[in-house]
Write a structure and sequence with these properties.
Order of helices and strands: HHHEHHEH
Protein name: RDD family protein
Subcellular location: Membrane
Keywords: Membrane, Transmembrane, Transmembrane helix
Structural class: mainly alpha
Helix content: 40-55%
Radius of gyration: 30 Å
Organism: Streptomyces hesseae
Largest sheet: 2 strands, antiparallel
Main location: membrane
Strand content: 5-15%
């Protein structure tokens, strides 16, 4: 009932409701049961940015391949001027693999990108936590790219129905804008 003089509801003491089922005898001595603190030491799972599509993959692979191809031959021409053809091809092979290693491994470890990936706004991250790639992960990925991945389109013509362009060695290619949003704390669902 409302008090007409003060227009307030009279104060009644709070009475907690009794549970519908009888309480367990051990539950009475603990005020806060364990299930209220679900995994107090669990780390929040990192949000992994979205992967790039196949068209972007093809484009940055083409750009990086052309940089490695023409850069390797350009270095060989520079260092073998006036030498034999055999010396040119040996120098071209060394320059090709050396430039490819520096471009793909050191670029991924130091900058999270290569020139082609930078132009396509793509970054290389670890698949489990979106962190910077580790050196040996990048080396394994480079070796995988030199040997296994170029054969995937050919194998797909012969009926291999697997996903031919999956990222190997725990690395993936993601959109660089998603990493910037994640770093600034504005990560949203897509």
């Amino acid at each position: 009932m409302i008090d007409p003089q003060h227009h307030q509801v009279p104060q009644q003491p709070y009475a907690p409701q009794q549970p519908y089922a009888p309480q367990h005898p051990y539950q009475q001595q603990y005020q806060q049961p364990y299930y209220q603190q679900a995994y107090p030491y669990a780390q929040p799972s990192p949000h992994i940015p979205r992967e790039v599509g196949d068209l972007r993959r093809y484009l940055f692979s083409f750009i990086d391949g052309m940089i490695t191809f023409f850069g390797g031959f350009g270095i060989a021409v520079h260092f073998t001027a006036g030498k034999s053809t055999g010396a040119y091809w040996v120098c071209a092979a060394i320059a090709f693999f050396g430039l490819s290693f520096v471009h793909h491994v050191l670029g991924a470890v130091l900058f999270r990108t290569t020139v082609g990936k930078f132009l396509c706004m793509t970054r290389v991250v670890r698949a489990d936590d979106a962190g910077r790639p580790r050196f040996w992960q990048a080396v394994r990925r480079w070796l995988l790219g030199l040997t296994w991945l170029p054969m995937q389109p050919i194998w797909s013509w012969f009926g291999d129905d697997g996903a031919p362009y999956e990222d190997g060695c725990g690395l993936r290619y993601v959109h660089s804008g998603d990493l910037r949003r994640q770093r600034n704390g504005r990560m949203t669902a897509w």
